[in-house]
From TrEMBL:
Main location: nucleus
UniProt GO molecular function: ribonuclease P RNA binding
SUPFAM superfamilies per the UniProt record, alphabetical: Rnp2-like
Organism field: Thlaspi arvense (Field penny-cress)
Keywords tagged on the record: Nucleus, tRNA processing
UniProt keyword Translocase, yes or no: no
Name under which the protein is recorded: Ribonuclease P/MRP protein subunit POP5
Length: 151
């Protein structure tokens, strides 16, 4: 019996620092819901409803970190190029302009998780001096969540 083949994409999200506001001065917070909604909307615009239906079978935002702006997205092996291209065509989340950058693509979650841990620790070492106590707690929570991430 063959398992369902997935691809895991480690993406970096660049937010426009000048327009990091949603309307009334509220900074945008990356969540799994915001990311998946923006990607799904991009799939509909660029590939139509049929493209959305074919890619929704295994599409899921598995992990996101609002501090380092990294996320892991799962999609089926057959549709991963469509999801990848739709992510690169996303121009905004809410009213905030964004750009997605692919850092790694893998066939298993463990390899993607290991790469994400390396990126996370490297980035958090660089920014650990400027983090507040609340951000430090959030950072530790996100790292714990990433370490526990499984299929």
């Amino acid at each position: 019996m063959v398992g369902f083949k997935n691809r895991y994409m480690l993406m970096e999200v660049f937010l426009d620092p000048d327009k990091d506001l949603l309307g009334e001065g509220t900074p945008i917070i990356l969540t799994q819901f915001n990311l998946s909604k923006a990607i799904k909307e991009s799939i509909v615009v660029n590939f139509g409803e049929c493209g959305l239906g074919s890619s929704l079978g295994s599409f899921q935002v598995k992990y996101e970190n609002p501090i380092t702006k990294l996320c892991i997205v799962r999609s089926s092996r057959e549709e991963h190029r469509q999801v990848w291209s739709a992510m690169t065509l996303v121009r905004s989340i809410g009213n905030c302009p964004v750009v997605f950058n692919l850092l790694d693509i893998s066939g298993c979650i463990r390899a993607c998780k290991d790469t994400a841990l390396k990126c996370e620790t490297e980035r958090l070492k660089q920014s650990s001096k400027s983090l507040s106590e609340e951000e430090t707690r959030l950072k530790n929570r996100c790292l714990d969540k990433l370490k526990l991430l499984e299929n």
